Fold this protein.
Amino acid sequence: MTGFHLWSKTYDRDLSDVLRLQTEIATAVASSLRVTLIGDVSAKIELGGTHNPAAFDAYLRASRAYWWSAIGSRQTVQAAIDTYMEAVRLDPGYALALADRSNALAYLAGNYETGQAIRDNYDKALADAREALRLAPRLAEGHLALARNFLEGSLDFSQASVEYERAVALAPGDARVLTSYGTFAAQVGRSVEGVAAARRAVMLDPLNPITHSSLGTALHFARRYPEAVAALKDGLVLSPEDAETGVFLGLQYYLIGDFESARAACEAHPEHWASGLCLAMTYEKLGRHTQAEAELGKLKTSRGDAAAYIYASIYAQWGNRKQALDWLEKALQLRDQGLQVLKTDPYLDPLRKEPRFQAVMRELKFPQ
């Protein structure tokens, strides 16, 4: 930044048509700075949007609640879903609200639900994603939502890959698209591609804690744990209360063998489900077997069989291969969404040479 003044203008408009105002501003900026944008500015800004101010307001309130759900609770996610529903009620053609409600429903299913409610929410999420794309076939967020449902809801990696790539093709300069794609690419073994996409997202949106945390996630699956620590710390500077990033930082410390730092990071966020995973493994490494068992017990009480993949990870790290393999096969039977990371998950490394593990890998048909 040089500090030179490039462009400014004051806008005094009726907010009854927010999207038209956004289009006018974007067009004026592009014209003044002589920037050539890809495609029609107006069409891209209004794609999947609304001209209903009340629907737009509901969408913004829902988005704030959803994107901060990692530092909230199940109630935070449900509140976001309800508010997205309000936006869609006010404008049934609001494709972007449908796509984001799809993401929130998938997050609820994968992180908080148990039993039949998991499948029910994934089914609702899939219906929202498909409706969003019916309304706006070129909406990148709609393709992201559909990709997430293929990935988590049905473990269909081939179809998920197609939809992620469509999203990137439609919005190559969108940080949100790049963070989602980067995480997916890294976790299915395309680590160079995944980390590159995540780094570009940080460049495009450096003040967003989500881009830094997503880079940390991509680096985790690339087995570059010290770099993941640095990226996650950057995210926490921007959002110090983010429980999800805090616990994931603890897991990176665990993987580099700094068990005291792992313990401290994960004990700081007992409200996040992944702290149980982190502490069950970390306490065992520190010789605190009773506390490790207690953390596993709390997970089993709260999540039941829905956390089968997590139990497989814990038992694998404890050295109990039979229990780990039993729970891994249970996870496959239940189509546990945790299986999406199996190809690159370091916690399951002790099982990789086991024939039962290799049978699960073959069944999942990961991309090569």
In short: The longest helix spans residues 116-135.
